[in-house]
Amino acid sequence: MISSSRKLLLIFSDMDRLYWEYDEKFWQPSKEAYKDRMEYIDVRVLKNANHIISSPDSQKEMLTWTCDWLKGNYS
After folding, report:
1. Measured in Å, how far apart are the chain's first and last C-alpha atoms?
2. N or C: which end of the chain has fewer CB within 10 A?
């Protein structure tokens, strides 16, 4: 997606191992290749959220981020 100039929003919860796996297995080995494309990548981490983002506060924050990102990028 990024190589075709499509924007990407990734939202992880900080209490989920998937964020750490993404960072360790993809981002750290690949970040140099994307240094000139950072305007297309938006990675956010929800504090105190579990894997399924089950708390109402976490859901609200995730939805706010998503709506704001969509409005800002695809109004």
Report:
1. 19
2. C
Torsion of CA 68, 45, 57, 65, to 10 degrees: 0
CA quadruple 30, 68, 70, 65: dihedral sign = positive
pLDDT in tens, 27-71: 999 999 999 999 999 999 999 999 999 999 999 999 999 999 999
* Domain locations in the chain as residue ranges: 2-74
Amino acid making up residue 45: V
CA dist., res. 50 & res. 53, Å (int)? 5
